[in-house]
Design a protein that fits this description.
Oligomer: single chain
Strand content: 35-45%
Largest sheet: 7 strands, mixed
CATH topology: Aminopeptidase
Distance between the termini: 33 Å
Structural class: alpha+beta
Low-confidence stretches: none
Length: 161
């Protein structure tokens, strides 16, 4: 069987992308798997305000994932407690197509901070596979309050050196 990779591209996120990206994170299943979200992830003005400020922060690398002419997700590097961390979100209708893996691999070429960490809910197997396919190694666990689940859950910590 021949596997055709989706033709994605990354480009710096623009303020005009935020409306679409906001809609993606409203998906209930996606929010459940992401787990660690804003207290009220449905507050559009708070979302737009927060991410507009992040776009201006030189320590943050926000990229929008494009497939054809459509925005299908986002990927970013941010700083947390002095460490470089990655985060990504793919529109659920594009899950299982290799987009997150391809986007992360491409992102790691332009974002050269190392080590870089990825955190993932213990039961988000898809995201765990993405990190592992991109060379991240599980190095620990932590617990944190997951707003999307309204409970404390375990998260796995992955590292790429």
């Amino acid at each position: 069987m021949i596997y055709n990779k989706p033709e994605i591209k990354l480009r710096p996120t623009e303020v005009s992308d935020l409306e679409t990206l906001f809609q993606f994170q409203l998906d209930k299943e996606g929010a459940y798997l992401a787990a660690f979200m804003a207290t009220d992830h449905t507050d559009k003005s708070a979302y737009i305000d927060k991410y507009t400020k992040l776009l201006a922060n030189p320590a943050v690398n926000n990229q929008t994932i494009i497939l054809g002419n459509d925005i299908v997700g986002s990927i970013a590097k941010f700083m947390m407690e002095g460490d470089s961390e990655i985060t990504y979100w793919i529109d659920r209708k594009f899950w299982g197509k290799g987009i997150a893996t391809q986007a992360l691999n491409e992102f790691l070429v332009i974002e050269t901070s190392r080590p870089i960490f990825g955190r993932v809910a213990f039961d988000n197997f898809g995201s765990q596979r993405v990190l592992e396919k991109c060379g991240f190694v599980k190095e620990g666990t932590d617990k944190g309050f997951a707003n999307a689940r309204q409970s404390e859950i375990e998260e796995f910590i992955y590292k790429l050196t």
